[in-house]
Amino acid sequence: xxxxxxxxxxxxxxxxxxxxxxxxxxxxxxxxxxxxxxxxxxxxxxxxxxxxxxxxxxxxxxxxxxxxxxxxxxxxxxxxxxxxxxxxxxxxxxxxxxxxxxxxxxxxxxxxxxxxxxxxxxxxxxxxxxxxxxxxxxxxxxxxxxxxxxxxxxxxxxxxxxxxxxxxxxxxxxxxxxxxxxxxxxxxxxxxxxxxxxxxxxxxxxxxxxxxxxxxxxxxxxxxxxxxxxxxxxxxxxxxxxxxxxxxxxxxxxxxxxxxxxxxxxxxxxxxxxxxxxxxxxxxxxxxxxxxxxxxxx
Length: 298
Description:
The chain has 12 helices and 11 strands. The chain is of the alpha+beta class. It folds into 2 domains: 4-178, Jelly Rolls, CATH 2.60.120.10; 189-297, Orthogonal Bundle (Arc Repressor Mutant, subunit A). The chain has a 6-stranded mixed sheet. Strands 5-4-7-2-8 form a 5-stranded mixed sheet, with no helix packed on it. The radius of gyration is 21 Å and the shape is globular. The chain starts with a helix and ends with a helix.
């Protein structure tokens, strides 16, 4: 059966952009304004404190991995109190060398490998909204290996570099997401997939978005009453079933239109609309412009 998590990551089309070794010593703190792009960090040695806007501060230790799919503002600091230095990642040029915070001389108290990448999907904001603001995973060796591979590949100029980086970042995302317990996650895809009944419905929606699904049919697949399914799906995913289906159909449609491999009638058929005109009306209402204009602009 279709894997919704793999589909969402594939549709996001992540690509590697930047990675650096970051270290700190003594008293240090840095405050980053909201970035909006995905960022990641794997701890190599030592400890530091990460305080993400809207989240409880967490202490990161060697072996920890952090992913923020749509990076909000955050502060990172050493264990000693310090006034944070403000950085706007959208304005500051990417450093050429590795980054050092706090005391410049002597050995570092903490070292990490951090970086960011980009989503090439035209619907990245919608898809990223299905993911948690912050993923914190402890002692998953595969993630550290993948981050190191991203680092090494980004520094090399070998043939096929961009394709290798794309695949590595996809693997990094999937590994991080599936290593995160979904039961306690905020409403979204991970929490929905962690619910055995809701997961069945999600897999059917993603497996055949062209099917004329109704809440009653999905409830039957999930072996729940219509009302119980509606409430359970909405609570887990953060959207009612039909609203989620519409959003997913439009995300798939946008991807197909941007590829420019299909005409509007074929796109309409692939996402569950009986005619190009019906699809165009729904797409225009949802996106704010016609499918043809959207395809031309992207």
